[in-house]
Amino acid sequence: MFYRDFPHNPLSKEKRITLADIQKTPCILVATKDQQEQEREYYQNTFGLGDTYLFANTLDEGRLMVIGKRGYMLAESLAKKMTSNANTVCIPLYRDSKQITTKYYAFWQKKNSNYLIEEFASILHQIFHK
User: Fold this and answer.
1) Is residue 107 part of a domain?
2) What CATH number corresponds to the domain at position 34?
3) Is 11 inside any structural domain?
4) 104 lies in a domain?
5) Total domain count for the chain?
6) Which residues pair with 72 in a beta bridge?
7) How far apart are CA 90 and CA 73, in angstroms?
8) Is the residue at 72 inside a domain?
9) Which residues contact 82 (CB under 8 A, 6 or more apart)?
10) Domain range spanning residue 76?
11) Which of 2, 42, 67, 74 is the most buried (most CB within 10 A)?
């Protein structure tokens, strides 16, 4: 899923968007200076996004950049926090005919297992499976 400026952008009225639809539009990523290159590389290589990226220091700064029509922002698991409003809309992103998703994994060394780690894993599971 991702955000697009609304209602001025024609793509904001679509039910789904493909990678081809957004190739020439900058992708806004939230990352510190030190992590910008790794984030750019990850999104470019994993999702096949274009090669133009803008960086925000915080989620709020990224949302303001979207509202300011500077690009789009992938919502991923933050979609529930980033609901559509008068300025933005959340739209599913597709590659070919399949919606793009991301899998998250939590793992730790068995010798380090304890109640707190297992409880943390349980909480993560509950959050991501809502």
Assistant:
1) no
2) 3.40.190.10
3) yes
4) no
5) 1
6) 27
7) 9
8) yes
9) 3, 59, 63, 75, 88, 90
10) 2-99
11) 2
Pinpoint the alpha helices (H) of 3-92.
19-22, 36-47, 59-67
Residue from 20, 55, 13 nearest 38 by CA: 55
Q: Give the number of residues written for the chain.
A: 130
User: What is the pTM for the complete model shown?
Assistant: 0.74
Q: What is the 3-state secondary structure (H, E, C) of 23-41?
A: CCCCEEEECCHHHHHHHHH
Q: What is the predicted pLDDT for the residue at 108?
A: 87
Q: Are the CB atoms for 63 and 70 separated by under 8 Å? A: no
Q: How does pLDDT run across 65-111, given as a tens digit for each residue?
A: 988 889 998 876 454 555 556 677 888 899 888 998 887 788 889 89
Rounded average pLDDT over 32-53: 92
